[in-house]
Amino acid sequence: xxxxxxxxxxxxxxxxxxxxxxxxxxxxxxxxxxxxxxxxxxxxxxxxxxxxxxxxxxxxxxxxxxxxxxxxxxxxxxxxxxxxxxxxxxxxxxxxxxxxxxxxxxxxxxxxxxxxxxxxxxxxxxxxxxxxxxxxxxxxxxxxxxxxxxxxxxxxxxxxxxxxxxxxxxxxxxxxxxxxxxxxxxxxxxxxxxxxxxxxxxxxxxxxxxxxxxxxxxxxxxxxxxxxxxxxxxxxxxxxxxxxxxxxxxxxxxxxxxxxxxxxxxxxxxxxxxxxxxxxxxxxxxxxxxxxxxxxxxxxxxxxxxxxxxxxxxxxxxxxxxxxxxxxxxxxxxxxxxxxxxxxxxxxxxxxxxxxxxxxxxxxxxxxxxxxxxxxxxxxxxxxxxxxxx
Length: 390
Description:
By secondary structure, this protein is an alpha/beta fold. The protein folds into 2 domains: 3-107, Single Sheet (N-terminal domain of TfIIb); 109-390, 3-Layer(aba) Sandwich (Rossmann fold), CATH 3.40.50. The protein contains 14 helices and 11 strands. The chain has a 7-stranded mixed beta sheet, with helices on both faces. The chain has a 4-stranded antiparallel beta sheet with strand order 1-2-3-4. Strand 2 and strand 3 (64-69) form a beta hairpin. The longest helix has 21 residues, at 289-309. The radius of gyration is 21 Å and the shape is globular. The two termini are 30 Å apart.
């Protein structure tokens, strides 16, 4: 955690400011390019050079603490395995300096513990190698995301951006670099640890473990907010959207991308996968990771065969599946507890109800040839909060 992040964090329960208690730090040099960015923004360089690896974020009124553990602030309002391990490991230290303080113990939203578990399994095992991102090269994936977010039309330099649901963090890292914005990425799962290990050296990319239903930031504080392929994995996509919609500033933009029922009807293969999903997923999400892998083994093998020998997506920028790619893809479809699908009209209605105007749908934009069909066959909607764009 960079000390700069403290300026944005608040208690997700009552939105009060937090006090940072530092126990262990690591110095990370700042490049000359980053120094110029820091100076341009009029910020203190020490806020970016000292990485807090271990510590506490304290709410003194409520006598609760949020761990900074392995460099990542753990801001969930309900106890997680990582937070409890931290509390046990540093029990003596906590009791000595902060007697009667405890982890937040509120109840999470329905199914959040299952979401944390299944997506942690999916992303922690992904083993980022810098050569592939799903079935694309990273460069191709980043080009696709620049199109989906319509980055070229936005001036995000030195702005504050939020990505909700960063997974392994590669997209957030790229967006922060290509736009020169300061980006905060949150995820409920332990994918944050993989993201921190791979991209934590980016001085302008902050990583937080938190729930989309209790984000640890002040409302109306971001210049741009986006979420790609995340909120449909919660118990209620609409409730998740309503939470997220509060965080762009007036006149700023929100983009969300969710699964669409039409994407599953495009061809016979998609319809077969949808049938299998309806049969397997209600059983598979309940099982431990090793049991899921056993059940999914035939599908994993089928994914490898199809992607390597029959897929129409083959080309210089497409990745032939190996075991880890196929396992990741199979987990993403067959192990989440929740997968909801929504069309453009439904999601546009949510935007309007939340006070957004000037709506655009990804499926209605002219799509470059390098963007795979599923990107635009699903439902991507962007709107301006209040209608008057900054």
